[in-house]
Design a protein that fits this description.
The complex is a heterodimer of chains A (559) and B (72). Chain A has 22 helices and 2 strands. Chain A is mostly helical and 559 residues long. The chains are: A mainly alpha (559), B mainly alpha (72).
């Protein structure tokens, strides 16, 4: 395909973005003096700032491109990843888990594991999380370079090194607060740069009803086709969706992944920290209005040869069409000079904010949970800030190394896409038992977490190397020939179950911590949160109820 | 965040969001007057009204940022 031509004004908009984010980093440098400033954003943020950053740390360009393309394959099912697969978990985090996280004044999620259990559980999670974030950051970098190479003709090496250098620069200068600022800028750029595509797409068809008219029923419903795995394009039943996506994967990610939870730790007080994921849930619910609507518009255009809208071949498999190119091609279709630059900048910001989020989470976990916990226990606050800055540079360089590795060995992508269910899914079982069952022991937590991670990895390798036959596949996934999506969901479910069962079983036969040691860390051992005289509209419980009602209404409407 | 050496708090993020939206809005409006390749729905002038909307929102966010910084 021909690459997208950029005018001088479009280039000016892109260059201005780099100037703005490095300028923000330089500005914040003057205010970044202590460890709390560098790693926790000063712990002074409102729930609005922390909430938008919480959402934006997850909202990458990869997700937007992928799910717009995914809508062309799965239809409205994609909305499950925004509603069922996010909102309940975000509300649970805000209402029930945040008091334990925030009140213990920890710097990271592994830090909670140290307080609740012991050093070995913290180290197991810290090391696996650090590896995961670097791999994710590198893959993000690689895919960004791939997208811009194919669509814009940009040089691989220049794309990767320039964006990585900018990220390294502003995080080294301003730490987490730089990452938070650029994430929020990215949030607004994504809405400003991409929402207009959905609006113009709907305008071209003369209304949303006309866009949805004529689409197969499997593309326009959320639940109606989930009674049988063969009835929907994703090949999954309602049980797999609810248990795999709605429970294990969603709760595993949103409640334990330090990349997002770190943003809530930057809040000024407990009420703001609790409101952080609840505020974010409203914006999460709105995202299908960009990705799903744009994906449906692209699908309708592809189905109509007269529209002139054609997808290019997939760079990794030229025998297939490249659905992920749908959104950039809509930019070409609808956007004039200036808006093209804005749309490309929104994608660029999305890619870069994703990497920045990973790097800022990595430098905190490395500094507090590995360096200070194992290498230099007497490190001063000033020294830790220095370590955090050095770690940022090292993290960026390792991300670039991972990106080059992915460029050479494409199969690494398969492993990295599955890494979430190796790490986060079992961790959610550990956290759940740790926070809500005081009988959970340190020994149980460590071996349970390890067993869950190994179980998930074993299932992945079994499918990867065709060691799982149809009979065993039916037991493991309720489908003799499961799709990749179904396998991922069930892999996460099994990881969670193995971790939960092993932890509970070992805990029954080993010694637990005393009640006094569990104060502030376990429900029942912790004084109830007193919100004081806060009016109704300031209460986390009120907004969580509103969010729940809205998400239920959306699911009912698009049933 | 700590105060800087002059004892001042950093400007709130809303100020930066506002300035970026407003500047980009102006550039998008300028782009709508540049003759480029033909696009679908060009007759609706998307650059003009969307850019104007960005300038308005940018102005509001900048004002919020300045006012909240002055309040301290």
């Amino acid at each position: 395909m021909a690459t997208i031509e950029l005018a001088g004004l479009d280039w000016a908009i892109i260059v201005l973005y780099f100037v703005a984010i490095i300028g923000i980093g330089l500005y914040l440098r003057k205010f970044t003096k202590t460890g709390d400033d560098f790693f926790m954003g000063g712990r002074k943020n409102s729930s609005w700032v922390a909430g938008l950053a919480f959402l934006s740390a997850n909202l990458g360009a990869l997700e937007i491109l992928g799910w717009t393309g995914g809508t062309m394959k799965y239809g409205m099912f994609v909305s499950h990843f925004y509603w069922l697969g996010a909102v309940p978990a975000m509300l649970f985090l805000g209402l029930y888990m945040m008091p334990f996280y925030y009140s213990s004044k920890i710097h990271s999620v592994p830090g909670y594991l140290k307080l609740r259990f012991d050093e070995r559980t913290r180290l197991l999670n810290a090391v696996s999380f650090a590896v995961m974030t670097l791999l994710m950051s590198g893959i993000n970098l690689y895919l960004m370079a791939l997208v811009f190479k194919v669509l814009l003709g940009w040089d691989w090496h220049v794309s990767m090194w320039v964006s990585a250098a900018a990220i390294g620069c502003y995080i080294t200068l301003g730490g987490l607060m730089s990452a938070i600022f650029t994430e929020i800028v990215q949030f607004f750029l994504i809405w400003a740069g991409l929402f207009l595509l959905s609006i113009l797409g709907v305008m071209e068809f003369g209304g949303i009803g006309n866009v949805m008219q004529g689409l197969p029923s499997t593309m326009t419903s959320l639940w109606a086709t989930t009674g049988d795995a063969g009835s929907n394009a994703m090949g999954v039943t309602w049980l797999g969706l609810v248990m795999g996506l709605g429970f294990v994967m969603s709760f595993g990610y949103w409640t334990t992944d330090f990349l997002v939870v770190q943003r809530a730790f930057s809040s000024k007080d407990l009420r703001s920290a609790r409101l952080t994921p609840i505020t974010a849930s409203f914006f999460k619910m709105a995202l299908p209005f960009i990705v799903v609507v744009a994906g449906m518009v692209a699908y309708k255009l592809v189905m109509d040869p007269a529209s002139g809208f054609k997808l290019p071949p997939d760079p990794s498999d030229p025998s297939k069409l490249w659905n992920d190119a749908a959104l950039p091609l809509l930019i070409v279709r609808y956007y004039p000079v200036g808006l093209v630059g804005l749309g490309i900048t929104a994608l660029l910001a999305g890619f870069m904010a994703g990497q920045a989020g990973n790097v800022s989470a990595f430098n905190t976990v490395w500094t507090y949970d590995i360096y200070k916990a194992v290498i230099n226990k007497k490190a001063t606050d000033e020294h830790l800030v220095w370590v955090g800055r050095v770690t940022t540079v090292v993290g960026v360089l390792l991300s670039i190394g991972t990106a080059y590795l992915a460029m050479q060995f494409n199969t690494i992508m398969d492993y990295i896409q599955a890494i979430f269910s190796w790490i986060n899914a079992p961790l959610f079982a550990t956290m759940l038992l740790g926070m809500f069952w005081k009988r959970t022991t340190s020994t149980g937590a460590f071996w349970g977490l390890l067993a869950g991670m190994i179980a998930s990895f074993a299932i992945f390798m079994g499918f990867r190397f065709n060691l799982v036959g149809p009979d065993l596949a039916s037991v493991l996934t309720l489908s003799a020939a499961p799709s990749d999506m179904t396998r991922n969901l069930w892999q996460a479910i099994w990881a969670w179950l193995v971790c939960f069962g092993t932890t509970a079983l070992i805990s029954l036969f080993t010694t637990r911590k005393t009640d006094a040691e569990l104060v502030g860390l376990v429900k029942g051992m912790t004084p109830k949160v007193d919100e004081g005289k806060v009016w109704l509209f300031g209460r986390p419980g009120f907004w969580a109820a509103v969010a729940l009602i809205v998400v239920i209404a959306l699911n009912a409407y698009f049933w | 965040m700590s105060q800087n050496d002059e004892g001042r708090e950093p400007l709130p993020i809303w100020f930066f969001v506002g300035v970026i939206l407003a500047v980009y809005g102006v550039l998008v409006i300028i782009g709508s007057f540049v003759t480029g390749r033909p696009t679908v729905l060009a007759e609706t002038q998307p650059g003009l009204w969307w850019g104007s909307l960005m300038v308005v929102f940018g102005g509001i966010f900048t004002a919020i940022g300045v006012v909240s910084h002055r309040k301290g």
